[in-house]
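SEQUENCE AND FOLD
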Amino acid sequence: MNGRVTQEHALAKVLVDDVSVRFDGTLALDHLSLAVGRSEFVSIVGPSGSGKSTLFNVVSGLQRPTSGRVLLDGRDVTGETGHVGYMLQKDLLVPWRTVVDNIVLGAALTRGATRRDREEAAALATRYGLGEFLHHYPHALSGGMRQRVALMRTLALHTDVLLLDEPFGALDSQTRLDMQLWLLSVYEDLEVTILFVTHDVDEAILLADRVAVLSERPGRILADLPIPLERPRDLDVLTSAEFTELKREVLRLLHDRAPAVAP
C-alpha cells in the first residue's frame, strides 16, 4: 500500500498504513502496510527479529510508529491503547485469583468488577470448556487450560479485535494441537477479527484466512497469501494436497528471503 489507501483499505477493520519503526537508529519495520477485514483471521509469520511483536505493539497503541498510522474502522488510533485485546505467549495469570477472578481482571483494574462481569465471565468460561474450574487457582490448571483462561480474559474486554502473540508457543505438541482446534471453534463461534503471530507454519495455515509473511529485519511484507481452505476445519486438512502446497510456498518465502513486494 505504501500510504495509498484504497476504498477497500479504508473499509478494513484494521489498517496498518505505511508504518515504519526505528529504535536508536535501527529500523525494525520498514513501510509496512496490512489491511485486515472484519471477522478475518490473519496469521503473521517471519524470521526471529523481523518485527512481529513490534507490529503488535504498534497496533495495540503501546508503541507509536516513527512514521505511518493505524486505523480501526477507518478511525486513526495511532498511539492509543484500549481498542484491541492483546494476549501474549505467557498467560500472566494472577496466582492468587481464581479462574473467574482472572477473567474479570481487566474490569477489576479499570472500573471494578461487577456481579454482571462475574456472571458473564462464568458463562464465557462454561461455554468454552472451563465450567468445572471456575473457582480453581492457576496452579491447579494445565498449561492448555491456563491459556484458555488467558484468552477468556482477553475476550472479556469486549473488544472485537484480538492480537494473539504466539499464545501456544510454550505448550507441548499435543496440547498445542488441542488448543489450535479449540481456538478454531471459538473463532467460528464469535464475530471477532484476529491477528495471530506464530513461528509454526502449520499452525499459521490451519487457523487463518490469510498468511502474511514478513521479511528479515527491517520487517516488510514479502507476501500476503490467501488460505482457500473451507471452514469449519479439522485435522484432516493437515494432510491435504492443498495444505501441503500452501506450506511449501510459505516455507519457500521464509527461507529464500526473496525481495519484499507489496501485497
In short: The first strand starts at residue 14 and ends at 23. Residues 1-82+197-263 form a domain with the Rossmann fold fold (CATH 3.40.50.300). The CA atoms of residues 86 and 120 lie 20 Å apart. The chain is about 35% helix and 20% strand.
